[in-house]
Amino acid sequence: MKEIDKIAFIETKNGQILSTRSKGKSTFYIPGGKRDEGESDEETLIREMHEELKVNIKKETINYIGTFSAQADGARDGVFVKMTCYEAEYTGALEASSEIEEFKWLNYKDIDIVSEVDKVIFDFLKEKGELQ
């Protein structure tokens, strides 16, 4: 089994979750991405959030949420994405970067427009009462 290792940022507010859509894509993804060689989870999270949404993660507030896995979107069968998820406080205002078309606050009813691994995370957050 091939696995794509990704780090994701979970931000829930008022029963909604922060999600992003890349340029040219129709599917929404929880913000984050693949680690660069030698990067820790924290370093990847900080870099990806700055690249995608121009905010600065406060390293001391990073908190592990969980690790989730599902079939990778657009990949051949048997290629899974493993998403290690964190929450954290940040400074700065959310702003879509050059690679992000838009960011949006999604509800559980938006589950049909997110990636397969995000669906697993949506279910997890709904059970915890964080997503409506």
Write the layout of secondary structure elements.
Elements: E1 2-9, E2 12-13, E3 16-22, E4 32-34, H1 41-53, E5 56-57, E6 63-71, E7 79-87, E8 90-91, E9 100-106, H2 116-127
Parallel strand pairs: 1-7
Antiparallel strand pairs: 1-4, 2-3, 3-9, 5-8, 6-7
Structure description:
By secondary structure, the protein is of the alpha+beta class. The chain has a single domain (2-125), classed as Alpha-Beta Complex (Nucleoside Triphosphate Pyrophosphohydrolase). It is built from two helices and nine strands, in the order ββββαβββββα. It has helices at 41-53, 116-127; strands at 2-9, 12-13, 16-22, 32-34, 56-57, 63-71, 79-87, 90-91, 100-106. Strands 4-1-7-6 form a four-stranded mixed beta sheet. Strands 2-3-9 form a three-stranded antiparallel beta sheet, with no helix packed on it. The termini are far apart.
Sheet with the most strands, sense and barrel status: 4 strands, mixed
Helix content: 10-25%
Secondary structure tally, helices: 2
The whole-number mean of residue pLDDT values reads 96
Order of strands across the widest beta sheet? 4-1-7-6
Low-confidence stretches: none
Gyration radius, rounded: 14 Å
- Number of strand elements: 9
Strand content: 35-45%
The CATH superfamily bears the name Nucleoside Triphosphate Pyrophosphohydrolase
